[in-house]
Amino acid sequence: MSAHTAAGIPLTRRQRRLTRSAWRQPLAVIGLSIASVWLAIAALAPLIAPTDPILQESGRFLAPSAEHLMGTDGLGRDVLSRVLYGARISIPLAFMLVGLSVTVGATLGAAAGYVGGWLEEAVMRVVDLVFAFPPIILAMAVVAALGPDLRNAVLAIVVVSWPSYARVTRSLVLSLRSSEYVAASRLLGVSSARALVREVLPNVAGPVLVLATLELGNAVLLLSGLSFLGLGAVPPSPEWGAMVSEGARTFNFWWIGAFPGLAILTVVLAFNFLGDSLRDALDPQTSRAVRERAL
Amino acid sequence: MLSRFVARRFAAAVALAFGVVLVAFLLTNLVPGDPAAANLGQRAIEDPDAVAAFRRQYGLDQPLPVQFGRYLTNLLTGDLGRSQQTNRPVRTDLAEFGPASAELALTATAISLVLGIGLGTLAAVRRDGPIDQALRVVSLGGVSVPLFWLALIALYLLSFRLSLFPGAGRLGPGAPRPPSVTGMYTVDAALAGDWATFRSALGHVLLPAMVLAAYTIGLLTRFTRSSVLEVLGNDYVRAAHAKGLPVRLVVRRHVMRAALVPIITVVGTAFASLLAGTVLVEQIFSWPGIGSYAYRSATTLDLPAIMGVSLFVALVYIFVNFVVDVLYGVIDPRIRAS
Hints:
The structure holds two protein chains of two kinds.
Chain A: H1 13-23, H2 26-48, H3 79-115, H4 117-131, H5 135-146, H6 150-177, H7 180-187, H8 192-228, H9 240-249, H10 255-281, H11 284-294
Helix pairs in contact in A: 2-3, 2-10, 3-4, 3-6, 3-8, 3-10, 4-6, 5-6, 6-8, 6-11, 7-8, 8-9, 8-10, 8-11, 9-10
Chain B: H1 2-29, H2 35-39, H3 42-45, H4 48-57, H5 64-76, H6 90-125, H7 130-144, H8 147-161, H9 185-192, H10 195-232, H11 235-242, H12 247-281, H13 290-300, H14 303-331, H15 333-337
């Protein structure tokens, strides 16, 4: 393997280290490939899907065949088309969910760790409180209270996922705040807010990125779980969890539930392969905080 | 020293439980939806007198702190409200459905502990070898699989198609319901000495428990692996190797003893996630536990029942974690000091 990019520019030592460890990690490559395929499917679904996902055109409960590779469901809709279109719901929402949770969690966690005092106390007590509920249970209660639809499901998942980021960010900020180089920059007259942004946050980014990648998978699982419970996407929409729930009601026609579930599994597996490899590739010492939280 | 440690832990658990109750209260009361609108029929809503009467009857015209006080007193007397779906007190429902879920979650906990600790130790001992790599994929698969889908596939393939396991439900058609002591059929049948029923109950709980355990097996395998690896690096383990002890003996006598202590801390989390997982698994297996109850409540938007289940699961979780914390402190005195 050459240590040069296609353009012939030598890689920096850091880049070289990352690429090398990526090749030593087949799981990272597999994860990235599956994730890319799903991203492409999400982008191109209207072009590659055989039919409209909510079109009730063919016979009902048709077994998989050359014409309908994944069969048709109880309303005569093509399961393959629905699975492909489902990627347009789950995958963008997963990224949005993680983006929102990182923003809320990292901001509150960094503020708690850096400012300390009552703010830290308040944020961390709320974090403890959220952790007192298993995620799917709290999310279920929140959606049920707000009313079942996709927007409230998203809100509920953000409510249950931000504390992980807050906890990790806070502990990293705490350990960095007392480090010598931050003290040195403060002595040089850098303001406290500036020191946080310039010196502390870049060091927080790695572990938060690892956590975020792993949480992408969890976001997909939670969202499909809520939809399975009837608290997420509403019926005609080709959401994977809702499709498995439909498959459970039409038990004998295995293909109705089997394929959408397989889609969830492969997407989540890809994100987890990536996150797990990323965790190994980054500094093992900082990844410990993440590992503890992942449990 | 120990009693002070236990008291401190207990106070923390009570504070957390209070917070959980507050969350449940806020969720039921501060939501945009008007409970009167949700519970009264269309015609009653247009009648201001009926709405006012409803609000008065449920204390909704009182200020929030007063309402919370009432909510808390009701809870302390065990009143969780009435389920709209079963038209019974939520407490009665939980008491009826709880044991079935406990049986399922406890069986799943046992399965995850045995498999998770076993596979995790194997992975650590064979670090970076092909077995370790394969187990990494297996454990990541466990935390990635949607449980409700795994339940569907397992029931269809292993039970319906291949008949390796009995079908849905808690007992076979011929087996009589054992006399109720704990409500867990396996235990009750064993207590009654009815081994045919015991076998039927055990056969029925096995497949849903294995499905439910998939996630925690994955978690425990990863956690055990890193915990064992940490111990393997210690000098005294190297010394044991150096004096020529067989690997099996070193692992069993020196490594596991130290590595198992931190594993205790995740058992509480594992049990809670198993209890929560019943919401996604039980319905598929027609398992009449709180998971199926929560599923039906969620699909019919039966708010008192949903809140009852959430509170129940969260309080069990807090309790289990309290017990685990105390156990951990008893086993490892260093924890008490910190």
